[in-house]
Design brief:
377 residues, alpha+beta, Alpha-Beta Plaits, 2 domains, five-stranded mixed beta sheet, 72% helix, rod-shaped, binds guanosine-5'-triphosphate
Length: 377
């Protein structure tokens, strides 16, 4: 994962490093001129530098495009080996400049370690090749005394040790940092999932608390909250407000004769009828077993009576009747309306309940308007 994450950065950095290295290597042509003057040796050196610069620039371009270092490590190793070979070749071509060459090898070795990121094995092998090759060239082509070779070797060993451990430490730190970041990412992902899970649980709980499981209508508590708000707004606006209670007649008989499953279907069908025949702004709730309650804002009790009668008619025509033949499905509805600003929801429900009770006693299958509302009229 770490390799995948840093791959684009490695590609970019390797590309830039190579371009800079190629240009710096090319610039040393000035020093060639200073050491060897005009002549075949200079032309040879210039030709070699040109080949190296062009190859490095081409490789920088290729690495920048397709230099995925976890799959094409050799592509990153190749320019280092070309540069190393060129530096080694300068010794036989310019043997008198050995002290300058030593400095160049030390700088190149450090540059390999510090500027080529995340490729410790590649860099270490290329450095080893550069250093051993340089020492061999110093012995064979520059006639260097043994004690000087020993001193150069010690210097190069030290350079390699410093470069190697610096890069090792850098890589370890980067990997640790990446591991911590990854851990944090995983925790954040888990946290996001946990929050989403809790939110969905909360929504489920809210829906369970607010909705009646069988009919999908507002549960009693939620209905009371919404109806209370509507009533307060109506009283504030001095607009009419009605409420009716609907009770299924002889519902026990349906349960007893056709089973509770059938009873449930009847309740669901009545709830659907209510939803379909009332306005969106009306609030419908399931008040108890086979009892429904409806709050009708902006509705005078006389209009509520018409709405209730229409609803009563629709219930009697319900298709569910086919499943319960010989049973006449009817409802009794008690209506209450706002009388004054002091009327509260509980008082309204009590009035509607009394009207409903009167309807039941009067023979059921009827719509009864509360006496208080009738008296007021
Ligand atoms: N299937 C079903 N039955 C329910 C549910 N809640 C309440 N009941 C039943 O509804 C019946 C109501 O019976 P009663 O209160 O005697 O009323 P009724 O038979 O409708 O008679 P009246 O209201 O006087 O016309 C009871 O048998 C309850 O068990 C429910 O969710 N599903």
């Amino acid at each position: 994962m770490y390799r995948r994450e840093v791959a684009p950065r490695v590609r970019r950095e390797s590309c830039v490093t190579l371009i800079v290295a190629a240009l710096v290597f090319g610039m040393f042509a000035i020093s060639d001129y200073h050491f060897v003057g005009l002549g075949p040796a200079l032309y040879l050196l210039l030709a070699m530098r040109l080949v190296v610069v062009v190859s490095c620039l081409v490789l920088a371009f290729v690495i920048g495009r397709v230099g995925d270092y976890s799959r094409r490590m050799w592509l990153h190793a190749l320019p280092l080996w070309i540069l190393a070979t060129a530096i080694i070749l300068i010794v036989p071509l310019r043997p008198e400049s050995l002290p300058t060459q030593v400095t160049a090898v030390v700088v190149a070795t450090m540059a390999f370690y510090l500027l080529i990121p995340n490729l410790l094995p590649v860099v270490a092998t290329a450095s080893l090749y550069l250093n051993l090759g340089f020492l061999a060239a110093a012995v064979m082509a520059a006639d260097t005394p043994a004690v000087v070779v020993l001193r150069i070797s010690l210097l190069l060993i030290m350079t390699n040790a410093v470069g190697f451990f610096a890069l090792l430490r850098l890589e370890t730190l980067q990997r640790r940092q990446f591991a911590l970041l990854e851990e944090e990412r995983v925790q954040n992902r888990q946290l996001v999932e946990e929050i989403a899970h809790r939110k969905s649980l909360e929504a489920q709980l809210r829906s369970v608390a607010e909705q009646d499981g069988l009919t999908g209508l507002d549960a009693r508590g939620h209905f009371m909250e919404r109806a209370r708000e509507l009533l307060q707004r109506a009283q504030f606006d001095r607009s009419p407000f009605s409420l009716f209670m609907i009770d299924v007649d002889h519902f026990k008989a349906i349960n007893d004769n056709w089973g509770h499953g059938q009873g449930d279907s009847v309740l669901k069908a009545i709830a659907e009828t209510c939803k379909a025949s009332l306005r969106p702004q009306d609030v419908i709730g399931r008040f108890g077993g086979e009892e429904f309650i409806v709050a009708l804002p902006d509705t005078h009790p006389k209009d509520a009576q018409m709405v209730a009668e229409r609803l009563q008619q629709k219930v009697s025509e319900l298709a569910v009747m086919e499943a319960i033949p010989d049973h006449r499905l009817t409802v009794t509805i008690g209506i209450a309306g706002v009388l004054d600003e002091a009327t509260d929801l509980d008082a309204l429900i009590h009035q509607a309940d009394q009207a409903l009770y009167a309807g039941k006693h009067g023979g059921r299958n009827r719509v009864v308007v509360s006496q208080e509302v009738e008296g007021e009229a």
